[in-house]
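Revision sheet: structure tokens.
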Amino acid sequence: MRIGELARRTGVGVSTLRAWETRFQFPTPERSATGHRLYSEDDVERVEAVLRLVAEGLTLAAAITRVASVGPGALPDGEAEAILLRQILDAAGQGIWVIKDGRTRYANRYMAELMGCTVDEIVELPIQSLFDPSDRPVVRERTDRVRTGQTLHFQQWLHRPDGSTFLAEVHTTPLLNQAGRYEGGVALVTDVTTKHEQDTAARLRAALLDAIGDAVTASTNDGSVAYINDAAERLFGWRAEDAVGRHERDVFPSPDDPKLGARIRSSLDNGKRYSGRYRMFRRDGTEFVAHLTAAPVFDAAGKPVGSVGVISDQTERDALEHRLTRREQQAEALAVLGAQVLRTPIGERERLVTEALEVTRRMLGGAPDAIVVEVAPGGDELHLAAAVPEVDRPITFRSGSASLPGYVAVSGRAVLVDDAAKDPRFESGSPGELPFASAIAAPMFGPAGVVGALLVTSPEPGTFQRRDAHFVQAMTNLVGLAAASGV
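Predicted:
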């Protein structure tokens, strides 16, 4: 149970329980894989026992010390009770080790088994022989802390008489007499060597999986998420502690036909792999195209018990392929139109201007307007010469930095505008001009210099990319050639 449930069951507030743990190391919760405190029914009984002892007149420190050393019950009195207590201690599933004045005063049968000797032999063993020499300063420091009344919980490698070692999880509590003076220490000892090895192997596997650039997930047969690596956290926006235990359709939803997800799950349940493209949602609702490779996991009997998946985001790859395809198409369109211009007699090329504007709009994703303007005599203005779609009114742009075409005509280079309202290089929105939010303009050259410009526009900011400016400049050169030195 979590600390809130322990507080509800015992009537002791969460903040008070945490204060007890900080001051007295009581109670001592386990920790979940995500770091949350976890308590057992024994902890409920131990906290309630402390409350009973305090109600009977003991101080809080004395009550906690007593419960921590002997459990929630009272110490039995009399010889018969002492025999019963020894039987209980010998039956305990933990090693119980009592130390006083640097010597072992008592060890139960389980503690002797942990040390690979008899109870009588462990009592005779020198305490220092149980520790590696390099650990002895730490052992002395811990002993001093217990003498001051502290309860300690730590892990320590212990040496058996036969030379072997094991990793012990030790919970040490001071034993106090009725006057509250230190009499010795009692340690509860558990062999955690196997758990330590398993945890080490698990951490190694997790580190290896976290080092993989692709998202890695694991699910049980019922579809519950059992694991996600760091890359999966970044890709889907879920923290592992929030995703584990949820159904995979909630953590990795897809807008695709639900039947596809069912077919993938059915294939995995039947021991078959799946590999293919799969649309998915992140936690924030954004969609992306993934490449999913999923494989079943089998138990020792060959029965599927779950599945693992490797997921890679195809967004950048698809965008790159789209850009490459678009460049190839633009290059091909330039080549075809250029060949057409060269095959057409000079006096008949003007009809190709409109076709060039149409091609420019298509290659840029259907820009709303593509126009050609020419520099008016005197160079103070640029007048509309051709437009796709057609414009039924005169369009005039001012020269120089008073307008985008005028700026391009002066600079002699193509200009990309992401947001006209925020671009300080030229003015925009003057009467008679064509309004736009984003645009590309390229100069058109003649024998005497710049004779005009080609302008493609969009009502939305950020429509065009920088590489599109090269294509527009190339199309402008073709338009200039088709127009034969002037539209």
